[in-house]
């Protein structure tokens, strides 16, 4: 399995607090059957002032530590990019990061208020040649009143990624309902952990994959955690996935 959204890098945001926590998380990923993770700390002006170069350096350093410790986990670069006005320019400059330097980019909208002109924002990313992946739409508190917007974004070429903990019930009843609804309707491209630590927000890809398989079958569940994530890392065109 491949996890394209987690917070394993130490000390950069609200994820792993230090190197020891990062190594512990890496071991949990391996035990769960994950072979590759995209390190995706938040890039959120005013709160998490991470940049592409900082994240690249941190990924290289953590990969070296894992290699020395004999933890068989491959790390690739990425970021949990929050919506900003100069998003496309940030990608072009390297301040924001796509996943493993591919056309695929994680985009996190505000949790409690739908941003103005969100469809225009995502359209600008698509027109610039990227494939935006909207992170955890099932956990957005405004999804209930704006589900038609989510559907239009999907039709416009935006990919949808849901969180493992939503399927397993870790985020409560509402996110579980929306995650299952989107799965049942074929509106989910990727399943990712969004893991932050080893106690509260732990890697649970295996459990979530099994939960997905019970609803949509083994083949489609495999697409969520293997086929499409591999295609992302290999920069395959979305039409081929």
Word description of this protein:
The protein has helices at 19-31, 52-69, 87-93, 118-127, 147-155, 164-168, 173-184, 205-216, 218-233; strands at residues 2-6, 36-39, 42-43, 74-77, 80-82, 104-108, 131-135, 159-163, 190-192. It is α/β, with parallel strands linked by helices. The strands form 2 sheets. The protein has a 6-stranded parallel beta sheet. Strands 1-2-4 form a 3-stranded parallel beta sheet. Strand 6 (104-108), helix 4 (118-127) and strand 7 form a beta-alpha-beta unit. Helix 8 (205-216) packs across helix 9 (218-233).
Inertia-based shape: globular
Give the number of helices: 9
- Please tally the β strands and state the result: 9
Which oligomeric state applies?
single chain
What is the string of helix and strand elements?
EHEEHEEHEHEHEHHEHH
Question: Which percent band covers the strand fraction?
Answer: 5-15%
Distance between the termini: 16 Å
Mean pLDDT: 96
Strand order of the largest sheet: 3-5-6-7-8-9
Largest sheet: 6 strands, parallel
Q: Using only CA atoms, what is the Rg?
A: 16 Å
Structural class designation: alpha/beta
Unreliable stretches (pLDDT < 50, length at least 5) are none
Percent of residues in helices comes to 40-55%
From the structure above, extract its key features.
241 residues, three-stranded parallel sheet
């Amino acid at each position: 399995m491949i996890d394209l959204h987690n917070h394993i890098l130490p000390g950069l945001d609200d994820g792993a607090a230090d190197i020891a926590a990062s190594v512990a998380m890496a071991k949990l990923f391996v035990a769960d059957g994950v072979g590759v993770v995209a390190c995706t700390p938040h890039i959120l002006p005013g709160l998490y002032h991470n940049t592409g170069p900082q994240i690249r350096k941190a990924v290289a350093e953590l990969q070296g530590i894992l290699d020395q410790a004999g933890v068989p986990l491959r790390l690739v670069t990425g970021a949990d990019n929050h919506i900003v006005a100069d998003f496309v320019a940030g990608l072009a400059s390297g301040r924001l990061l796509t996943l493993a330097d591919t056309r695929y980019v994680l985009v996190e909208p505000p949790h409690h208020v739908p941003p103005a002109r969100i469809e225009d924002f995502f359209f600008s990313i698509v027109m610039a040649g990227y494939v935006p992946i909207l992170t955890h739409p099932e956990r957005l508190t405004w999804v209930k009143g704006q589900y038609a917007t989510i559907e239009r974004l999907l039709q416009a070429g935006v990919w949808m990624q849901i969180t493992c903990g939503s399927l397993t019930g870790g985020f409560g009843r509402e996110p579980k309902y929306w995650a299952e609804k989107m799965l049942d309707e074929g509106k989910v491209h990727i399943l990712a952990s969004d893991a932050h630590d080893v106690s509260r927000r732990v890697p649970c890809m295996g459990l979530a994959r099994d939960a997905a398989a019970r609803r949509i079958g083994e083949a489609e569940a495999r697409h969520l955690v293997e086929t499409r994530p591999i295609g992302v890392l290999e920069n395959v065109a979305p039409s081929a996935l």
